[in-house]
Write a structure and sequence with these properties.
This protein is of the alpha+beta class and 144 residues long. Among the domains are: 44 residues, no CATH class; 56 residues, no CATH class. Helix content is 40%, strand content 16%. The chain has 5 helices and 5 strands. A 3-stranded antiparallel β-sheet has the order 2-1-3. The two termini are 57 Å apart. About 3% of the residues have low confidence. It binds zinc ion.
Length: 144
């Protein structure tokens, strides 16, 4: 139950109990609330000293400032998961990455997941050959 201070169009103030704020809005819409003094059914909520918030008012969220930080943490965690997956499932070929990637691409090496280091000019070769590869920031070194 919720109590509202109401006011009719004639300016009579009275209090009324409602099941909820929504119940009040519905009863107001159907004009079933009547002023106990003049029986007027044009009822509005009286402005109370408590400051009732109107619908649609963007309430200041206390968690808002924390949200961007949360996203950064999640991105970091996602990167960590990817890095762990790569470390576990990809064969480290180190500086031979480009050579191996091309061999696999041309069918000269066994098809497998590899990881390693590629120089910018080597990346260009891979791109030109249409070899799919993904660059990941080196997270491990930053963590340790
Ligand atoms: Zn009235």
């Amino acid at each position: 139950m919720i109590i509202f201070d109401l006011i009719c169009s004639q300016g009579h103030k009275f209090e009324c109990w409602f099941k909820s704020s929504k119940a009040f809005e519905e009863q107001k819409a159907f004009r079933v609330i009547h002023c106990p003094v003049c029986d007027d059914n044009r009822i509005e909520k009286a402005v109370s000293s408590f400051g009732i918030k109107k619908h649609g008012d963007p309430a200041p969220k206390p968690e808002s400032p924390a949200e961007p930080r949360q996203e950064r943490i999640n991105a970091h965690q996602a990167l960590r998961v990817i890095t762990e997956y790569v470390n576990k499932n990809f064969e480290d070929v180190g500086l031979d990455f480009t050579k191996e990637a091309l061999k696999i691409h041309w069918g000269e090496s066994k098809k497998r997941n590899i990881k390693g280091t590629a120089l910018p000019q080597e990346e260009k070769v891979l791109e030109e050959e249409g070899v799919p590869f993904l660059k990941l920031p080196v997270l491990k070194r930053l963590d340790n």
